[in-house]
Amino acid sequence: MTSPRRLVVRWALGLSGLAFVTNAAWLAAARNLNLGMALVAAAGAVLIAWAVWWTRLSRLRWLQLLCAGLALGVVAVSVFLAAYGSHDTATGDEDAVIVLGAAVHGSEPSSTLIGRLDAARSYHDRNPRALIVVSGGQGFQEDLPEGVAMRDYLVAHGVPEASVLVEDRATDTVANFALSKALLDDRLAPGYRVVFVTDDFHVFRAARIAAAAGLDATHVASTTSWYFWASNYLRETVAVVTSAGG
Questions:
Q1: Which residue in 25, 33, 29 sits closest to 140, CA to CA?
Q2: Local structure of residue 230 (DSSP, 8 states)
Q3: DSSP classification of residue 101
Q4: What is the pTM of this model?
Q5: By C-alpha distance, which of 216, 244, 215, 190 is closest to 81?
Q6: Which CATH architecture is the domain 96-225 placed in?
């Protein structure tokens, strides 16, 4: 007979797995597809399978320890990333702003991208002399480059077009910084300082990439919506671990 405690754990696993799968399905239907959604769906499937085959799997002590270790590792890295990204370091006198791209739905910026652009606008209000580089190429399910959609949003919301430089080829964070730096090197004197804008979960890795690109960079973060937490933090944990290993 299953004890009440084990029954509670089994139900918790199953309901948590169902919540993960539901979140992944909703994001896949409403947002552009990405690796994070697949990771959330896979994690949900594992939790549901554990609940269904509880009796058989509970005998495999090594598997329990492995899964618990992986889960704790993801939580630990996610907490670190959230804490690191929660403290802005911008001084307000940087020479340029680099806004890192995010998904565009058709031709409209996603809520994630709007959050980054609004954070850049807020910084621009404090330091209007800084050039703004909007960086992002055209990806899957996007009708135009992210950089173009970003410029259009900023200009429509009061930022002078002359203050915005468009980088429309980057497909990852490394290219974001490398191509943005090339644009700024042609326009600013050596020794310029930049502030980059991205989501809180992404700040740690972005800061390392900016430094590797030779940029003197501070950061401003936008806040990740709660329904993206699982997808974004799982994906970023994988990216941080694999980049550390490389």
A1: 33
A2: H
A3: P
A4: 0.89
A5: 244
A6: 3-Layer(aba) Sandwich (3.40)
**Interatomic CA distance for residues 77 and 9, integer angstroms:** 24
pLDDT, mean of each 10-residue run, the chain (246 residues): 76 93 93 91 93 82 86 94 96 98 95 97 98 96 97 98 98 97 98 98 98 98 92 95 73
Q: 189-206 burial string, b = 16+ CB within 10 Å, else e?
A: eeebbbbbbbbbbbbbbb
Q: For residue 99, give both structure tokens.
A: 């806004």
Residue written as tokens 């980088």?
167
- Enumerate the CATH 3.40.50.620 domain ranges in the chain, comma separated: 96-225
Distance CA 206, CA 199 (A): 10
Looking at residue 58, what is its pLDDT?
A: 76
Phi, psi of 157 (to 5 degrees): -110, 25
Element housing 133 (H / E):
strand 131-135
For residues 37 and 24, is the Cβ–Cβ distance under 8 A?
Answer: yes
For residues 126 and 222, give the distance between their C-alpha atoms in angstroms, rounded to a whole number: 16
Q: Which residue do the tokens 């991205």 mark?
A: 198
| Residue in this structure with the two tokens 């959330």, named with its chain if needed | 40
How is residue 33 written in tokens? 């597809």
Residues whose CB falls within 8 Å of the CB of residue 179, separated by 6 or more in sequence, listed in order: 135, 167, 169, 170
| E strand or H helix at 48 | helix 35-52
Residues 226, 35: contact at Cβ < 8 Å? no
227 touches 23 (CB < 8 A): yes
- Cβ neighbours of residue 54 closer than 8 Å, sequence gap 6 or more: 6, 10, 13
- For residue 208, what pLDDT is reported? 97
**Comparing C-alpha atoms, which of 149, 152, 146 is closest to residue 169?**
146
